Amino acid sequence: MIEREHGIDSGGAFQWFAQRISGAVLLLTLLGHFWVLHFFPPNHGEITYQTVMLRLNHPLWRTFDLLFLVFGLYHGMNGLTLLIHDYVRQKGIRLAMMGLLWVAMVFFLLIGMMTILGLSGGRA
Fold this sequence. Notes:
By secondary structure, the chain is mostly helical. Helices cover 74% and strands 0% of the residues. Helix 1 (13-39) packs antiparallel against helix 3 (59-87). It starts with 12 loop residues before the first helix and ends in a 6-residue tail after the last helix. The mean pLDDT is 83.
């Protein structure tokens, strides 16, 4: 009997589809980021700490940056999860790698959220 824990037979169609959707959202947010910050920056092309803080004071931009963070972390974690499940055959090693991946993802999510939400937004 064929083992269904690895590869395409593992029922990973949702993860495959979610990887494509998160990649598309990342592409759109990356293009938005470049459009606003690099092609049409405020103050005649000069990007300073003060202009970034003023932009981050707006709730829409904080939401935009949080979406960028969440989709980026999800996309990376989903990709690594698929690789681990496809190529790591030993269950103990696979469990340890997945545990480390979750710890890293939560750590980076918390650090990113604390950075985006904790900035003073131009009151420096």
